[in-house]
Amino acid sequence: MSATLHKLNVYSPDSLHEALRILGEKGERVKVLAGGTDLIVQLRAGVVEPREILNIYGLDELRYIEIEGGRLRIGALTTYMDIIQSGKVAKAAPILVEASKTVGSPQIQSKGTIGGNICNASPAADSLPPLYVLNANVVLQSLDGRREIPIERFYLGYKKMDMRPEELLVEVNMPVMEDDEDAVFLKHGLRLGDAISVVNAALLVKWSDDTVKDARIALGAVAPTVVRARDAEESLRGRRLDENVMWDAAEKTLRHISPITDVRGTAEYRREIAVNLVFMGLWELAYRRGRR
Ligand SMILES: Cc1cc2nc3c(=O)[nH]c(=O)nc-3n(C[C@H](O)[C@H](O)[C@H](O)COP(=O)(O)OP(=O)(O)OC[C@H]3O[C@@H](n4cnc5c(N)ncnc54)[C@H](O)[C@@H]3O)c2cc1C
């Protein structure tokens, strides 16, 4: 049965401290609301049925983009539009700008937050493969203090996170990309705009002249969580990106994915798309480097 929104008790704290106090007191009984672009849909569909809502959207202290000590720090309430319009993100992690531009429509980009995307924990979330290849950390805070975990360790299974009921996600941060690194985001949806990913992928290459010094590849919507294609990454190290090397790496991706069939595509279709996205991503990176 769908929830009646006006029957929900909504708390709208004025400060992060107040939000953490409410969360500490209520724990799992209260559901955090950021931009609401996932949560309101889930409430209306009856997928979640909380009695109480903690509306953090007004907490401007969680809305920032900073570069500090070689790291890009993004507050949890930063929207996709903030990211798209940020010169700092364009410099430090342009792949996040690329990915943000593919999320929903301008309306969703203006309301939806990066923290909401991370905490909704969909394996198809578009910010996640870029955050994986950027080696991002998530920062969780409660009244007891803060803890920081690599994003890859944050997800424990389908929609399962290493997050306690009294914790809020407050920040995601990552190393500023170096001059010898380049990264690309690719998304395959069922239409050109406002589409949820059938498969998405992020690839980051660190170059040494014309050979790959290091590579990181992450794919979404092909397993219960985003996955790294480590065998494919390994096969690229120390190699020049010729067509054989790229196809070989792309095919090795299959060892790491276990897609399901759902309304957006069959498992077989997703396997095919995953291989092709990785090949296309490598091709694009090689092209940009002037190696093709
Ligand atoms: C029409 C439409 C198109 C969309 N297109 C895309 C798309 O192309 N790609 C994509 O990835 N997503 C898409 N989405 C999903 C959604 O917009 C994003 O996941 C968005 O980033 C969610 O952010 P939000 O602030 O709206 O989160 P909310 O809906 O407010 O929250 C989402 C979840 O995260 C929890 N949460 C939020 N913030 C925090 C926090 N700081 N700490 C702890 N828990 C928190 C909430 O309790 C809830 O469970 C689309 C949604 C719609 C309605």
Please give a structural write-up.
The protein folds into 3 domains: 5-55, Uridine Diphospho-n-acetylenolpyruvylglucosamine Reductase, domain 2; 63-174, Uridine Diphospho-n-acetylenolpyruvylglucosamine Reductase, domain 3; 184-288, Enolase-like, domain 1 (2-Layer Sandwich). A hairpin with a 2-residue loop joins β4 and β5. With 292 residues, it is an alpha+beta fold. The termini are far apart. The relative contact order is 0.11. Helix content is 34%, strand content 26%. The model has no long low-confidence stretch (mean pLDDT 95). The protein contains 12 helices and 14 strands. The structure holds flavin-adenine dinucleotide. Flavin-adenine dinucleotide binds next to β2, α2, α7 and β10.
User: In sequence order, what are the helices and strands, one letter per element?
Assistant: EHEHEEEHHHHHHEEHEEEEEEEHHH
CATH level 3 topology of the largest domain: Uridine Diphospho-n-acetylenolpyruvylglucosamine Reductase, domain 3
The shape, in one word, is globular
Strand tally is 14
Largest sheet: 5 strands, antiparallel
Spans of at least 5 consecutive residues with low confidence: none
Helix content: 25-40%
From the 3D coordinates, which CATH architecture of the largest domain would you assign?
Answer: 2-Layer Sandwich
Task: Please summarize what this structure is.
This protein has 292 residues and is an alpha+beta fold.
Main features:
14 strands, four-stranded antiparallel β-sheet, five-stranded antiparallel β-sheet, Uridine Diphospho-n-acetylenolpyruvylglucosamine Reductase, domain 3, Enolase-like, domain 1, binds flavin-adenine dinucleotide, Uridine Diphospho-n-acetylenolpyruvylglucosamine Reductase, domain 2, 3 domains, 292 residues, alpha+beta
